[in-house]
Amino acid sequence: MSDMSANIMRRDERQRIALTLNGRERSGHCEPRELLSDFIRHELGATGTHVGCEHGVCGACTVHVDGVAARACLMLAVQADGRRIDTVEGLAPEQTLGDLQQAFQRHHALQCGFCTAGILMSCADYLQRVPNPTEEQVREMLSGHICRCTGYTPIVAAVLDVAARRRTQADTSEVEHA
Ligand code: FES
Ligand code: FES
């Protein structure tokens, strides 16, 4: 009979994982049961990702895993080994707000900002897939997030605004290249 215990990690045994965070190769150590959200914040220092409920309800911890929005509190850090993780810091790589963030600013779509990082990451992913959403679709998408401060109306307005601006820009560049 083979010795299975050789392959079983101890609860407190830390292991090294490597991933791509916002376009940069990063590595760090984590325990087997450590959440990705904690690893990103405490081991990699990317504290823009917030942690609220820690059981997949509030959406505050949303990041992109290989380009798709996911709850970082519902993933173990070890599951992110070798993958591409993008966080809210990646939306403003040169310390300049991206167009989605600027729309949130214009529409006063945040107050304390605790929920905002997660909402931005969901919106960024959603608008890649649905560039021309209706208000109803935006509200449906936002139903996966809890904001305690600002109310959802300005958030919806910001998302619709940035979608419209992107379409206008795309139309203009099509005309210029025609
Ligand atoms: S902290 Fe992850 S969904 Fe609330
Ligand atoms: S802006 Fe405060 S929780 Fe959403």
UniProtKB/TrEMBL annotation:
<keyword id="KW-0408">Iron</keyword>
<dbReference type="Pfam" id="PF01799">
    <property type="entry name" value="Fer2_2"/>
</dbReference>
<dbReference type="InterPro" id="IPR006058">
    <property type="entry name" value="2Fe2S_fd_BS"/>
</dbReference>
<dbReference type="Pfam" id="PF00111">
    <property type="entry name" value="Fer2"/>
</dbReference>
<protein>
    <submittedName>
        <fullName>(2Fe-2S)-binding protein</fullName>
    </submittedName>
</protein>
<dbReference type="InterPro" id="IPR051452">
    <property type="entry name" value="Diverse_Oxidoreductases"/>
</dbReference>
<dbReference type="InterPro" id="IPR001041">
    <property type="entry name" value="2Fe-2S_ferredoxin-type"/>
</dbReference>
<dbReference type="InterPro" id="IPR002888">
    <property type="entry name" value="2Fe-2S-bd"/>
</dbReference>
<dbReference type="GO" id="GO:0051537">
    <property type="term" value="F:2 iron, 2 sulfur cluster binding"/>
</dbReference>
<keyword id="KW-0001">2Fe-2S</keyword>
<keyword id="KW-0560">Oxidoreductase</keyword>
<dbReference type="InterPro" id="IPR036884">
    <property type="entry name" value="2Fe-2S-bd_dom_sf"/>
</dbReference>
<dbReference type="GO" id="GO:0046872">
    <property type="term" value="F:metal ion binding"/>
</dbReference>
<dbReference type="InterPro" id="IPR012675">
    <property type="entry name" value="Beta-grasp_dom_sf"/>
</dbReference>
<keyword id="KW-0411">Iron-sulfur</keyword>
<keyword id="KW-0479">Metal-binding</keyword>
<dbReference type="GO" id="GO:0016491">
    <property type="term" value="F:oxidoreductase activity"/>
</dbReference>
<feature type="domain" description="2Fe-2S ferredoxin-type">
    <location>
        <begin position="15"/>
        <end position="91"/>
    </location>
</feature>
<dbReference type="InterPro" id="IPR036010">
    <property type="entry name" value="2Fe-2S_ferredoxin-like_sf"/>
</dbReference>
